[in-house]
Amino acid sequence: MSRAFRSEWFKIRRPAVLLGGLGSMIAFAMLAVILTIVRADHGRGAVTVAHLSQADGFSQMMSRASDLLGIFALGIVAVAMAQEYSNGTLRALLMREPRRLRLFGGKLLANLVYLAGSVLVAMLLALLVAVIAAPSKGISTSAWFGAGLGTTISVFGNMVIAAVGFGIFGALLALLTRAPAPAVIAGVAWILPVENLLANAWPNIGHWLPGQQLTAIIAGGNTISGYTWALALGLSMVAVAAAASATLFRRRDVAL
Fold first, then answer.
1. CB atoms < 10 A from the CB of 121, how many?
2. What does the pLDDT look like over 98-138, one tens digit per residue?
3. Which end of the chain is more exposed for a tag (fewer CB within 10 A), N or C?
4. Angle between helical axes of 2-12 and 100-133 (0-180°, round to 10)
């Protein structure tokens, strides 16, 4: 597995790949913070200046962007895994490493490590932007680092957990479609319109939808699912997706 990991990491280290995904994640995290602050300053939406000044203020900012951050995470892994099929490079990799599960594990782990690192960097910079910009709009950040320090730190861990979960679902979609564009489109369609429509039409079904559980983890629990339920069910679904991905990678034929 270590050889597959190093091989995949060599590909990730290319500037276009490394800075593309990381840069997109940073840009969107910062944009989410700025837009949330602006909306709160104008009194638009459910988030107000008073809400953002509470101990979980930064968590509220990140939860507002959870769906789109999940799409970025899913897309990064889906594209990386599906490109091996669309570019026709998977056969060459299997010739060097015929043990398919080791190859799959190494490739997936490398992409998840890159994804987790990107999320942490993006979150740190988003927090810095929030601390700088929030006071100008009357939002106090002192509670974030006082009584809410544990909550602020937990946001980082929850975001990494959710991003890894979305990434594994991206890998599953990549193996099902064997092409980057269909995998990303399917993921976007499911996370945004399909799950939201289902949850709005039948509120109770939201307790069982994977994307809803992962976004609830980011928020530390929400009106759809409590944190404990979301973490247990969400990670169980992610484990099933990982097992299904490994089975597909091992058993499906590779076109010549």
1. 14
2. 888 898 999 999 999 999 999 999 999 999 999 999 998 88
3. C
4. 40
Q: Which residue has the tokens 């992610």?
A: 238
CB–CB of 55/151 below 8 Å? yes
Structure tokens at 243: 């097992």
* Gap between the Cα atoms of 111 and 176, Å rounded: 18
Rounded-to-integer distance, Cα 123 and Cα 211, Å: 20
Distance CA(89)–CA(2), nearest Å, equals 19
Q: Report the alpha-carbon distance of residue 162 to residue 25 in Å, rounded.
A: 14
SS3 per residue for the chain = CHHHHHHHHHHHCCHHHHHHHHHHHHHHHHHHHHHHHHHHHCCCCCCCHHHHCCCCHHHHHHHHCHHHHHHHHHHHHHHHHHHHHHCCCHHHHHHHCCCHHHHHHHHHHHHHHHHHHHHHHHHHHHHHHHHHHHHHHCCCCHHHHCCCHHHHHHHHHHHHHHHHHHHHHHHHHHHHHCCHHHHHHHHHHHHHHHHHHHHHHCHHHHHHCHHHHHHHHHHCCCCCCCHHHHHHHHHHHHHHHHHHHHHHHHHCCCCC
The per-residue pLDDT for 156 is 92
- What is the pTM (predicted TM-score) of this model? 0.90
CA torsion angle for 120, 121, 122, 126 (degrees, to 10)? 100
pLDDT at res. 93: 79
At 58-88, the pLDDT tens digits run 988 888 777 788 888 999 999 989 888 888 7
| Distance from C-alpha of 105 to C-alpha of 177, rounded to nearest angstrom | 19
